[in-house]
Each structure stands twice: as structure tokens, then as C-alpha cells.
Amino acid sequence: MTTPTTPAADLPAPTDLPGPTAPDPTAPDPTAPNTRALRVLALCGFLLLAGCLVLTAVLGLVDAVEGDGVGGGLLTAGLWSLALGAAAGTAALAVPRRALVAAQYALAFAAPVLAALD
Asked: What predicted TM-score, i.e. pTM, was given to this entire model?
């Protein structure tokens, strides 16, 4: 005849469990994106920059036709934002950093917003 066992009987006693260990400060962050993923995001950012360039140009031309015919300072700032976004993307391809990719995307999205405000 077999004796029934309880599930708690199979578990180790609380004193047998290992204690908490401190994380190794020199170990890489397992949740950080790797360099290949950052480079792919930077390459996709160039496609976004091209799309934002077209949208910024369209907004600038619409403003030129419907407005006073002169591009304002915010349109110029939007175009500079695209140029700086391309520089950040190029730097992110060379030295993949999360901040450079984030700057590339932020500058790309800022360009049409600045052109629309003009």
C-alpha cells in the first residue's frame, strides 16, 4: 500500500534555499538593445527622415503659396532639424548608442511640427 504525499513534502526547507546575491556591476544589462538592433533602428530612422523631409517640404510649399510667399524662421529650423537628425543617425551607425537613435527620431518628428507652426 502506498502512502499519500503532500506537495509541500517535496519542497526544500526554507533554510536550504540560497540567499540573495548582489548583481555584478560589470555585467552587461540584459535588457539593453544590442548594437545590431540600434544600427537597424538608425537605418530605419533615415527612412523616417526622408518621409519627414517630404512632409516638411510640402508644408513649406503650401505656406509659400497660401501665405506671404516667404519661409519663416520655423521652417528653417525644421530643415536644420532634419540635417541634425541625419548627423545623429550617421553617428548612431558609427557608434551605436540609444541616445543618438532617440535624438535622430526626435529631430525627425520635430521638423514637420516646426514647419506646420510657421
From this structure: 0.73
